[in-house]
From TrEMBL:
The keyword Cytoplasm does not apply. Gene3D superfamilies: Immunoglobulins (2.60.40.10), Ribonuclease Inhibitor (3.80.10.10). This is Ig-like domain-containing protein. It comes from the Eukaryota. Transmembrane segments: none annotated. It holds the Pfam family Ig_3. Residues 211-317 form the Ig-like domain. Residues 327-368 are annotated as: Disordered. The keyword Signal applies. It comes from Oryzias javanicus.
Length: 368
């Protein structure tokens, strides 16, 4: 274990032994953490950079810290944190950012917090939480992979804007069996109009609106091999997130052998794109290319926010290739032509008819 507390230190030391498992740099003049600052400390388990003067952390500061379990940066001057840098610490479980100057959390932070079980964001300047973080901490039923991990969150002493996201987070964390535990559940509203200093549980939350879903079409019919786009739009507050689920196969499709090969339904679909053009509105499109009979069925677009869940079904029917009309038989036209030709032959004169009779009887024709 290496501990440095000299107030004259202004940079990350480079002579730390390579076999160090715990490094503490506390109450120094260090103001930034540069790229690959701890590259040679591959055995490091605990990194404490507490109560310094750090204002910036490079996204690649933690390269090669694959064994790190705990990172503490509390008591610094950070206004932002490089969440993508957590990819270099796959075993990190404890992240402490208490007592900094963070005013916002990027939505993409949720992508890098999957393994964090202890997150302290208390005593910062946070006002709202992204919906993506709430989806991470309170996933929809069926989306939880593996056993439920308990998570401890420190969110107190922030000037929260009292909306239904943070309100429901507190409510869910207090529910029986919740996987999320708040260090201090008594959050205060310090930025809401007319609600300064009010406990969150007493705030009047009137902006919450359950999502409504509107599909572009409820029934779609297309042929085998074609491409289809299924779209739905949702509105609500907070801005809802959209999920696609295939719930059933098409019941009256003639290709029963193809349908029996389908995987078990319902199933979540992950090959879709979605955007939010403005607050409260989101659209989503799923692309089905080269349709087969197994693609037929009912698809549901689900919209979820902290106020509730709504969904809309879209039924997709896949048809076979269109058959060509049967062409006329080839011998019908020639037969008709021969009959017309026979009917159009000139009639024989009486004299010619008499000569044919004489010839057939073995007599000489007249005039020979």
């Amino acid at each position: 274990m290496v501990q440095c507390g000299d107030p004259g230190i202004s940079a990350i030391p480079v002579n730390v032994p390579a076999n160090t498992f715990k490094l503490c740099l506390e109450k120094t003049r260090i103001s930034r953490v540069p790229r690959a600052a701890f590259f040679n400390l591959s055995e490091l388990r605990f990194l404490w950079l507490t109560y310094n003067s750090i204002t910036s952390v490079h996204p690649s500061s933690f390269v090669n810290l694959k064994a790190l379990r705990e990172l503490r940066l509390d008591g610094n001057l950070l206004t932002a944190f490089p969440w993508e840098g957590l990819r270099d610490m796959p075993r990190l479980q404890t992240l402490v950012l208490h007592n900094n100057r963070l005013s916002s959390l990027a939505p993409q932070a949720a992508l890098f917090l999957l393994n964090i079980t202890y997150l302290d964001l208390s005593s910062n300047r946070l006002t709202i939480l992204p919906a993506e973080l709430l989806d991470l901490w309170f996933p929809l039923p069926g989306l939880q992979e593996g056993p439920v991990q308990r998570k401890i969150l420190g969110l107190h002493d922030n000037p929260w804007l009292c909306d239904c996201e943070i309100s429901l987070l507190v409510s869910l964390s207090m529910s029986l069996g919740s996987s999320v535990v708040l260090m201090d559940p008594l959050l205060m509203c310090s930025r809401s109009v007319g609600q300064s200093g009010t406990l969150l549980t007493q705030a009047e939350l009137s902006r919450c609106m359950r999502p409504s879903v509107q599909p572009a079409a409820t029934r779609v019919t297309s042929s085998v091999g074609s491409n289809v786009l299924l779209r739905c739009d949702a509105s609500g507050y907070p801005t809802p997130t959209l999920t696609w689920i295939k719930t059933s196969a098409y019941p009256d499709c003639c290709q029963q052998d193809e349908l029996q090969k389908s995987t078990q339904l319902p199933k979540m679909l992950d090959s879709f794109m979605q955007e939010s053009p403005r607050v409260g509105v989101r659209w989503s499109i799923i692309s089905l290319n080269g349709l087969s009979y197994s693609d037929a069925g009912e698809y549901r677009c689900q919209a979820r926010n902290m106020a509730g869940l709504s969904e809309a079904p879209i039924k997709l029917k896949v048809m076979g290739a269109t058959r060509l009309l049967r062409l006329p038989r080839k011998n019908s036209k020639p037969t008709l032509s021969r009959s017309l030709q026979r009917s159009r032959k000139p009639s024989k004169t009486p004299a010619a008819a008499a000569n044919e009779s004489r010839i057939s009887a073995g007599l000489q024709p007249e005039g020979s």
